[in-house]
Amino acid sequence: EDRGGGGEGGGGEEDEEEEGGEEEDRRRRRRRRRAVSIAATFFHDAIYDGRSGTNEEDSAALYRKFASEIRKAATAEEEEEEEENDDGPAATSSSSTAATSDPPPPPPPRG
After folding, report:
1. Which of 1, 32, 42, 52 is the most exposed place for a label (fewest CB within 10 A)?
2. Distance CA 42, CA 50 (A)
């Protein structure tokens, strides 16, 4: 009798954890795609002046400034969490790490 979890079907718990991790990754990617879509919609022509020929560029610059501010805030929050956490940076959540990754590019200008 094998009580060590090996053999046929013995890795079930590990398989479930892997599947759970894969599902969480899929949910995270869906949330990120949705956030990118919302940001692209919001920042597309966020600046509009009927007399200006640089609306797209101005909107993209506004987005870059916004993304930079968000990154700074997320980094500051992550550093605060690291100071409070005795385990150091490895113990921070993956969501805080994701927040400090490069922001998605601004929407392309319309031709």
Report:
1. 1
2. 18
Amino acid at 8: E
How far is CA 109 from each of CA 24, 28, 58, rounded to the nearest angstrom?
33, 27, 11
Whole-model pTM: value is 0.50
User: Do 71 and 101 form a contact (C-beta atoms < 8 A)?
Assistant: no
Q: Is 20 helix (H, G, I), strand (E, B) or coil?
A: helix
pLDDT in tens, 68-93: 999 999 999 888 888 887 665 555 45
pLDDT in tens, 33-48: 999 899 888 998 899 9
Residues 6+ apart with CB under 8 A from 97: 78
